[in-house]
Amino acid sequence: MSTATSTPTGTGSEPGRKPAHKGSSTSKRGRVQQRWLPWAFLAPTIVGMGIFTLLPIVASIALAFFRWDIISAPTFVGFDNFAEVVQDPTVRVSFLNTIVFVVVAVALQLGLALGLAIMVQEKLPAWLRVFFRSAFFFPLILSAASVSIFMRYLFNEQFGVVNWLLSIVGIPAVPWLTTPGGSAAVVILVYVWQNFGFSFLLFIGGLASIPVETYEAASIDGATGWRKHWFVTLPLLSPTTLVASVMAIINALQVFDQPYVLTRGGPGDSTRTAVMVIFESAFQRLEFGQASAIGVILTLIIMAITAAQFRLSKRFVFYQ
Amino acid sequence: MPGTNGALRQFTRRTALTALGAGIVGATAASWPRLTGADIPGRGDNSLSIAIMGTAADAAARQKVIDAFAKVHPEIKVKVQAIQAVDWKDFFTKILTMVAAGTPPDVVYVATEGAQLFAEKLAHPLDEYLRRDADHMKEYFADVHPSLVEAFMYKGSLFQLPIDWNAANMYYNTASLRQAGLERPADNWTHTDFRSTLAAMKKANPKDFTPYYWTNRLFGGVVPWLYANDTSFLKETKSPGGEWLWDGFYANDPSRSLRSGGYQWLEPNADDPRVFESFDYLRGLVKDGLGVRPEEGGGSALIGLFASNRIGTTPAGGYWVQGLHEAGMTEDGFDVQFFPKWRTQRHQFGTAGYAIMKTAKDKDAAWEWVKFSSSLEAMQIVFPTPNTTPARRSMVNEQLYAGTGPRNWKVFYDTLDRFPTTGPIPAPPQQAAVETALMKNVSLAVSGDERQLKDALSSMQRDLELALRRQP
Questions:
Q1: CA distance B181 to chain A (A)
Q2: Both B176 and B209 in a single domain?
């Protein structure tokens, strides 16, 4: 499509010029426009991503091979940072914690989101559905740091509301934030509470896209209750489950705010996560090279897990 | 009229696009100072940029000092930048980020926690200025206890002048103490007296009452107990040097012989039997329900809880007084006593003062600010209420605590006079890593059985070795 040739008030309508010549000029310009205009529109995004995403990624990878404390000039150390990181017991524990956290938190997040989505979509009247969609999504828009500060008060051993409620039913005070088990439980609980709303919305969308006829056919075949969900809902929801699980796992691998504010990674290293160690290495110990090395390792792990998920999805995901 | 409509539509679209383009260019031009960081205090002009930890309100509160400074030095323009932070570690992180961004402030208000990090990497020594202005500075040093000054000595040079400070004394709720049938503890009360006091308080007060609340921090946590037991989690030594300062300003001070070129913490000491003994004592308090199991970095609600009579005792400094007053506590509702004695009655303190950055554009101007800030005039403007303990002895007086309490406010400065070996927060240049190594093991150490305590201290020793091995 050439807008130039179809415009009667085109700028090339000079007296004495042959129409053919004029048409050739405008179509050439049109071709040039066609070629470059998309790039012109894309340029701000490309430049933005280049400066704020690509460049930091490249710089971060390069930094992993240097020792740098911000203040002095960086020195090249080869793979020393990676070797030190691998040998550091705190880093190893934090990665292990992160894996355990991902397994438990993602399972809870997806299970809770799916269960509530089915309940809201099938059992509730339309007006209540709207309310719960907003209500379950609401925690996600809150700042994780603010939520964690608030939760810290709730779970305080001496003065927290949670222990006060437990005491009413005769349960003694639980040291939520000062024992390894209690801390891990609170971090997972707070994280899942704040994040399951997003998976919930995805599942709501997925459930709405399953044709009613499929359920009717299943009913005619004699399927009822849980069998209907097992043989119809779950298989047809599998593309949504794939997307929800990929996003949940990537997010959970990067967990930082909740453990940092709630427990500072303690007691001991019981709630220290991979991203916390990156933060501590860089901004507390001023070892930006080591922090980058940990970041590179974490990125590779995230990429590997995501690739494995998509590979497995060929066997477990059914598209209508 | 389709042609007219088309032309109008085209004109409107073009006008809109032109307006949009002009708007973008205009907005970019208008926000240019922000985009280039030229509105960052001290950048883009010659003013002296000063970073303090706090809020915009804290920066505004300094305006009176800036005005007073401007009268003395109209040629020096000053901008104060308040940086919000959870704690000093967080504040230093933000300063380092400013350094990395190429926008370091010229002067930074630094507490003991970061004094050696700044001295090692970022700050400019004050030695030459102090020698030059020795006559002027004599009045300041005569009013400030040498223990505070020594905390800012590093390898024989002085990097900051103490402006305010706080020791870990013991606050107690007078009503809870009376309820337990007890009088004010003696000045030389011991750790066993303290335990008995807690037990009596627990017995006499409601079930949800906590006799001893303590936090898991570098200041006021486990360290005061270690100091009282004549030990620490790091081996403390002192570097030589500093005679120029001590002979010049403290030649006649009774504690002159104790002074040095600065503290050094080069090795871990968590495997010292006395460290085990101190932790075991605290473990006993937790086990018997006399003290809380401390959360890492906790304590933000402490003032409110203490003011509502739910806590019997807690270690804190003079900075607490104004907070308790504002929380509604009357001047007779609380009081303060020295920290209990064990093998010694050495206290822990933290202090703070301005450090001139190596990168400061005009170090002479920065020194004028540091010098003015240490004057009686400036400090009286900055500390109108007892929200910290001023470094100047003459300012810690009845007038400062009138209407707020505590009745025994003299305890604050007497701590330094009565116990001249009282020492600063152990904070080597690797402070952040050291603090993490300590904090992460404290809760475990005091929460379980003896085996868990031993494991936690072994872990602390290993973590401290790693932390100290690293270059700051």
A1: 24
A2: yes
In chain B, % helix, strand, coil (3-state, to 5) comes to: 50, 15, 35
- The C-alpha atoms of residue B207 and residue A172 are separated, in whole angstroms, by 12
**What tens digit of pLDDT does each residue of B120-167 get?**
999 999 999 999 999 999 999 999 999 999 999 999 999 999 999 999
Contacts of residue B208 in chain A, CB cutoff 8 Å? 158-159
CA angle B268-B269-B275, nearest 5°? 145
Q: Which of B27-41, B97-111, B143-157, B262-276 shows the lowest per-residue confidence on average (mean pLDDT)?
A: B27-41
pLDDT in tens, A72-89: 889 999 999 999 999 999
Predicted local confidence at residue B136, as pLDDT: 97
Quickly count: other Cβ atoms within 10 Å of residue A8's Cβ. 7
* Same-domain status, B152 and B86: yes
- Local confidence band at A315 (pLDDT 50, 70, 90 cut-offs): confident
Closest-CA residue of chain B to A173: B208
Whole-prediction pTM: 0.85
What is the ipTM for the molecules in this complex?
Answer: 0.81
Smallest CA–CA separation between A284 and chain B, in Å? 5
Pairwise CB contact (< 8 Å): B472 & A286: yes
Q: Which domain holds residue B110?
A: 44-166+351-399
**Interatomic CA distance for residues B226 and B348, integer angstroms:** 9
For residues B144 and B385, the answer to whether their CB atoms sit within 8 Å is: no
Give me the residue label for tokens 């970041």.
Answer: A295
Q: For domain A79-316, give the CATH superfamily.
A: MetI-like (1.10.3720.10)
Q: Clarify whether residues B275 and B149 are in a common domain.
A: no
Q: Examine the domain organization and report whether B173 and B158 are in the same domain.
A: no
DSSP one-letter code for B1: -
Q: Which two tokens stand for residue A248?
A: 């949940």
pLDDT in tens, A153-182: 999 888 899 999 999 999 999 999 989 999
- DSSP-H helix ranges across B205-319: 223-228, 243-249, 273-287, 302-307
Instruction: Tally C-beta pairs within 8 A across A and B.
Output: 93
> Which residues neighbour A237 within 8 Å (Cβ) at sequence distance 6 or greater?
A114, A203, A206, A207, A210
